[in-house]
Amino acid sequence: MAEEILLSARGLTKRFGDLTAVDGVDFAVHKGESFGFLGPNGAGKSSTMRMVGAVSPVTAGELRIFGQDPATHGPQIRARLGVVPQQDQLDQELTVEENMWVYGRYFGLSRAQVRERAVELLAFAQLTERAKDRVEPLSGGMKRRLTIARALISTPEMLLLDEPTTGLDPQARHLLWDRLFRLKRQGVTLILTTHYMDEAEQLCDRLVVMDHGRIVAEGSPQALIRQHSTREVLELRFDADDHAEFGTKIAGIGQRIEVLPDRLLVYAEDGDEAAAGVHDRGIQPLSSLVRRSTLEDVFLHLTGRTLVD
């Protein structure tokens, strides 16, 4: 039996005047899947998420969420979604638990249900000890975990997360990843946008790579890396303002060479062998590093630029 499809888009398009933010994209999300949109700022990820969240009308194409059209069944769709926006929208003057109570009442939950769910979710978010504290002085990571806990209070069938860890320090990011991974194991369907390659690799079963409003690749992180890159990458830095001249000198080493402003990337199945080849030509870089290929390399290969351009 085919997996249940909770979300499908065909030719999905969003325009703002003369600007086309989302340009005819196709994708589908299955129940229990963690699905991601990977791309730089301005790629069209957030515009797509707002349409999926049934808060921004579709300009053209077809979008079905839980089998329904958001243009005619917006309230019914939103009642089954949990949404974690890019910017936290917490009430700073209320306490942590009061934020949970107020939000739960929007979904028609009784006071007893709201309080029970709040206790469970604050424990899940590791915020039990801060339940009586006001939100305003909390750290960025705590506020983000509270926003996710609040989005779960109605037991949504699908959780939308727009750039969930932007602005967080590494420790806070990893803690949030752990919470999201636990949700995924519980069978919650996750849809997230990110421009962090490591986040996409950690959290996504499958993803689409977006650039200038279009989808340029789709698959699991591992499959995309296998298809569009090599097993390893040799990074070389030289004492030069322009690395292009060194790209010419090492031509033929590895399967592909990318010239970036601050370094050269040599794509090879064996990075150490490629490094030995550079050394054999008498070329001495300031530094060299062998690493595994990532989704950043996939994006660079497909678009000719990095995710942070």
Describe the overall structure.
The protein starts with a strand and ends in a 6-residue tail after the last helix. The chain is globular and about 75 Å long. It has helices at 45-52, 70-78, 96-106, 111-124, 140-151, 170-185, 197-203, 221-228, 244-249, 271-280, 295-303; strands at 5-16, 19-30, 34-38, 60-65, 81-84, 158-162, 189-194, 206-211, 214-219, 232-237, 256-259, 264-268, 287-292. With 309 residues, the protein is an alpha/beta fold. α3 (96-106) crosses α4 (111-124) and α3 (96-106) packs parallel to α5 (140-151). It has 2 domains: 5-219, P-loop containing nucleotide triphosphate hydrolases (Rossmann fold, 3-Layer(aba) Sandwich); 230-292, YebC, transcriptional regulation domain (Alpha-Beta Plaits, 2-Layer Sandwich). α6 links the parallel β6 and β7. A 6-stranded mixed beta sheet has the order 5-6-7-3-8-9, sandwiched between helices. Residues 7-237 form the ABC transporter domain. It is found in: Cell membrane.
